[in-house]
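Handout, section 4.2: multi-component inputs.
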Amino acid sequence: MTIEWSGAAKHRGQTAYIGRMRPQDLLSPVPAGLCCKGGNFHIDPVRPVERALITHGHSDHARAGHGAVLATQETLDIMRLRYGENFAGSTQAVRYGEEIRLGDVTVKFHPAGHVLGSAQIAVSCKDTCIVASGDYKDVRDPTCAPLEVVPCDVFITEATFGLPVFRHGHAADEVKKLLASVALFPERAHLVGAYSLGKAQRVIALLREEGYDAPIHLHGAMEKITHYYQSRGIALGELRPVRGTKKADLTGTITLAPPTATSDIWTRRFPDPVTAFASGWMRVRARARQRGVELPLVISDHADWDGLTATIAATGAGEVWVTHGQEDALVHWCQSRGLAARPLDLVGYGEEEESEPLGEGEQA
Amino acid sequence: MNRFAELLDRLAYEPGRNNKLRLITAYFREVGDPDRGYALAALTGALSFKHAKPGLIRDLIMERSDPVLFGYSYDYVGDLSETVALMWPKATLAGHNNPPPPTLTEVVTMLRTLGKTELPRQLARWLDELDETGRWALLKLVTGAMRIGISARLAKTAAAALGDKDPHEIELLWPGLSPPYTELFAWLEGRGEKPVNLDPAPFRPVMLAHAIEDADFAGLDAADYIAEWKWDGIRVQAVAGRDARGHLQARLYSRTGEDITKSFPDLTSSLHLPGAIDGELLVVRDGRVQSFNVLQQRLNRKVVSPKLTKDFPMHLRAYDLLADDDNDLRELPFAERRERLEAFVKKLDDPRVDLSPTITFDGWKQLAAARANPAGAGAGEDAEAVEGVMLKRRDAPYLPGRPKGQWWKWKRDPHVIDAVLMYAQRGHGKRSSYYSDYTFGVWTSGEAGDELVPVGKAYFGFTDEELIEIDRFVRRNTTEKFGPVRHVVHEPNQGLVLEVAFEGLQRSTRHKSGIAMRFPRVSRLRWDKPPREADRLEILEKMLKSETNKVLVSSSGG
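Output:
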């Protein structure tokens, strides 16, 4: 596609290093996102930039309008599905483990276990290595490559579930809970709210692993990405669109829908629906009640507290930068273990749901 | 315990009554004795042990976690039991030798016998063995804060469904049963004889009235009916009977059969004759019945202090007699039962128990006049506590449930105001896709001229068709969204006027308007009325003042 990436950076940073460089000279937070001056790029920028490295396809990390984008093939494909062919000036796909030199630095993408194609980005210069992990989880997910722990000097971690109350348990048990409910209420439809990239496909795959082989229905906004997952060889069984299905035929079925749709008038096409929501937030009752969820399913695509702390420890990083979520608690935990830690003031990351559009015509 | 916790967890989120029943019945079917029996006891509030104090729970978590992290977590979750349940550290016990999590039976039976000093260690052990949901349920159970929106009646109905029995039958047996109810389940599953209620003071399922409509009168003959006042109190059944040793036992039941004797110790000594009275629980001060507002201050108190019983003296106003000594009177016609009641109350001769008077009337017109002016038709100074009239067929036996054509209630017209829809919130369950909870307001003078001030919330009273119309209006006229709440346009010339009916008013510090409504519901949609013509706060204040004056005058005497 393009070879811009392998060329030297146009603007070299202050790279007259003496001895070991300071990590903040390698990567630093700026309003557009995490900026690497030495390599002339941003990681997951929230504003249009010249060159962007994207960790994964969720809309708060992957935005349209950058000059050049470097990401895994899956992330590029997902961006194309969401934003159209011209989502960036140019693109380049990178494989996990492939080393690319950008200006003064080298970058390497490693699996993050978050969603299909998700990556942590290791940025190295001389003897300093920073890993920007993006979003990650350290538990099994049949729909994406498992998290790889990358030894580094500075680990940039998310903190979505950065409180010790967030411990997520086994996703399989939550899916069993859903199936028990389907068995108990065979005359009702089960409507599972799940983010359309990653979570929905994981829930479907987990249902299949539990032996559920009936067709699973999809909200219109789920179709494209789910079919993309299937095209990448992920077995999801028989899927049907809700659109055009008679109310009576939805009796006893399971439907996956974006979380916003499960409280929308769209649900009136289902017979007496049970509203479920698959999210790590469901661990806290007040959150579930606030949303009017009847069947909370604690299934998260982010690491829980134990996962965050275990991963931080495993990287061997002496310094930890904490972004989006409950930074304070995680910073406190790091410091109490003798690690240098600070919150990174990055704005614009959070739950993908807020910015997720519903499929056309599905609102009605 | 984990399975019971799972049930509680699911019930806490399930809004529908029938679905709750299904969940509980499925649990009873799946879980064996004695665990399910203790679950039934927990759900009906029949378990008794000394509850653990929140301080104890806090100490346990403080010994095991970083206080800073606990602080952040508690702030976030907002509930102590839940925070502790979620952040309780995983036990580091020797792998394959982990003890199995405790059963509900173990927990309940141990809690009964455990000494105060042993409790913390035992609790910690259980918390180590349970999962998150199990820990949450355990902590709710031991702190006595199991608020999950399940009535004892609902739990019994779910048990009855196990054997296709009428829940009334369980109510009848209930006072004679005790946890873990193995004989009850054996009978429900067709494996055993029906348990015998040896309770000397059993509950009898109550008879209820239909609301009368104008059209009903045409088919009714006034001569067939006896009329009485409908009191705005609490329907109770006051029962006394002799146990095996000849001691008199007195009990007070709610209309659903819940034993509420403990809440009204000042009344039990008045039930000194064996029998079963159907009547109304009222507060009477200096011979005058107080309004429901006053009665409410006596209800739902954890501790019934001597001061409370002195300031809010309870009174039973009797209107039916179901049993006289050992004789069941329910087969007798009402007119005969009424005679027996009059004799019974006279014999009882107790200042706290009196007879609900009948209303003399020749025809419906005369009764309508009495209903409109109870004070002038015999209710005298007690008229404030009258909320309408009751019509009972002279020949009606006492039948459980709501039999057709036997008893009628004819309530006084409710208060009505025109208010403006201000905010709408999504409902729950079947209504979760509809904006079905409405906050409405009335006009008041503000700094910048007239403004609307919220005075209440209503979520029923409208028909399904009207719900669809309001829902559509809300969606098309939303000015702002806050999570599940929508601000709906409410300008003088733009907005929706709701006619709101309600039963009474109270002062409230929780509402900006300072007023709270009792039983508000949407009685009509006033599409025809522009919001500027809706009512003003002054009208409500005037109504409140007349109610409050009565309360103040009467409480100064107590």
